[in-house]
């Protein structure tokens, strides 16, 4: 079973069917705490839908796994940066 089928069932979903992770063992993208994320991130590198994947994870609050080439910690950092940028934009206007 691939990660798209695991996450969404066997129905097709636009960008997901073009992902590099199609056919890859989903366990690779959900490593045990403290395990390397290097192999999963390598699959994401160069993926044509990497940004779509990342935005999906951010919009849906995915707390586990590698999405769009970023770990949970990296996505938290990105969410904080974006929140600060939004606040700064509101303050500036």
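-> sequence recovered:
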């Amino acid at each position: 079973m691939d990660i798209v089928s695991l996450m969404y069932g066997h129905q097709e979903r636009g960008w997901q069917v073009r992902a590099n992770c199609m056919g890859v063992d989903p366990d690779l993208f959900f490593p045990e705490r403290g395990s390397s994320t290097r192999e999963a991130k390598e699959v994401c590198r160069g993926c044509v839908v990497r940004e779509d994947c990342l935005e999906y994870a951010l919009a849906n609050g995915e707390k586990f796994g590698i999405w769009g080439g970023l770990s949970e910690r990296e996505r938290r950092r990105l969410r904080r940066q974006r929140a600060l940028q939004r606040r700064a934009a509101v303050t500036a206007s």
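The chain has one domain: 3-92.
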